[in-house]
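Changelog-adjacent note: as of this version, every example in the card shows the full chain rather than a window. The one below runs 141 residues end to end.
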Amino acid sequence: MSYTIGEVVARTGLTASTLRYYESEKLLSPIRRDAANRRCYDKADMDWLELITCLKNTGMPIQEIRRFVALCGQGDKTLAQRYDIVLAHRQATMARIAALQTELLHIDRKVAYYRDACAAAKLAPAQRAVDPHCEGGAQAT
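Full-length structure tokens:
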């Protein structure tokens, strides 16, 4: 199956300029062109785009993605190096997830606080809860 750049944009959410950039940066193999010189992406290209997007979305810098892609192009002799790259990236991603989970707990406490404050908003102003994190101990409203 072959995909036009517009179809790839629709399927991946990437922009056409991002696709061209990935090709120019050699993150993708040269994309086949049709008789009218339009790009024709195949299943392998789509698979690479999925991997590149995953790595980028999880914080891998483009330079490291480029290094990984270049190693892939060198065949099985670079398997150990590629393993090290994806393992280190997995560990970094897990650390970011753990940090985000800690931050989410803080947000959850704020959600609960403001939920309770909203429920208590019908009380007289002097009886309303005070948010200890608001400047000057401002009342929750």
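Structural remarks: The chain has a mean pLDDT of 90.
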